């Protein structure tokens, strides 16, 4: 069981997979913070913890069925001449749900229409159901993306646990930063909107490199940080 520890290539695979899981988990954590932000303040900490714990459990459960994850790309149904796999249908449904939630949140933030009155209208368990549903979507997508790096179940599980722990420690700091600067929240919502579009397009086999989205967001983030720094002087 512990033989993998003595091999350098396994440590390299673990490091690469952990970094990849953290990067692929950015959209997951941003959506979680979006939903948690609509809860009363005294419920937000436990909601963040439970949401990320659910993400870790879902990923670990999915990893126990690597063969099933791999077979998700097999043709499943044909609609209007287009062949969809189960993976495609998961991406399509998840992308539509993500776009719907993000569009509503963007509208509320941009127009500020009754925003303060509506922000706490989401019940705790309704928030958790939304988080768990998108956890499943993001988990399936990220694990299928990462599955080519290593087929060692132990390495993949360790990478998932480490990445989720990193997200747990960084989520509160990120939440505070987003709350302090509303313009950062708009940037985060824009990122999630692009991710939603990407999921829908990929369900139809139109693939867009996530690097373009990350590059755009990093560029906008650096510009935003420069603007905020300039305003504070």
UniProtKB/TrEMBL annotation:
Membrane topology of the entry: Multi-pass membrane protein
Pfam families: TerC (PF03741)
Major location (coarse): membrane
InterPro entries hit by this protein: Integral_membrane_TerC
Assigned keywords, A-Z: Membrane, Transmembrane, Transmembrane helix
One GO cellular component term noted in the UniProt record for this chain: membrane
Compartment annotation: Membrane
Residue ranges of the TM segments: 12-37, 49-69, 89-107, 127-147, 153-174, 186-206, 212-229
Protein family membership: Belongs to the TerC family.
PANTHER family in alphabetical order: MEMBRANE BOUND PREDICTED REDOX MODULATOR (PTHR30238), SLL1022 PROTEIN (PTHR30238:SF4)
The protein, known as: UPF0053 inner membrane protein YgdQ
Species per Swiss-Prot/TrEMBL record: Candidatus Erwinia haradaeae
The organism's taxonomic lineage, starting at the top: Bacteria, Pseudomonadati, Pseudomonadota, Gammaproteobacteria, Enterobacterales
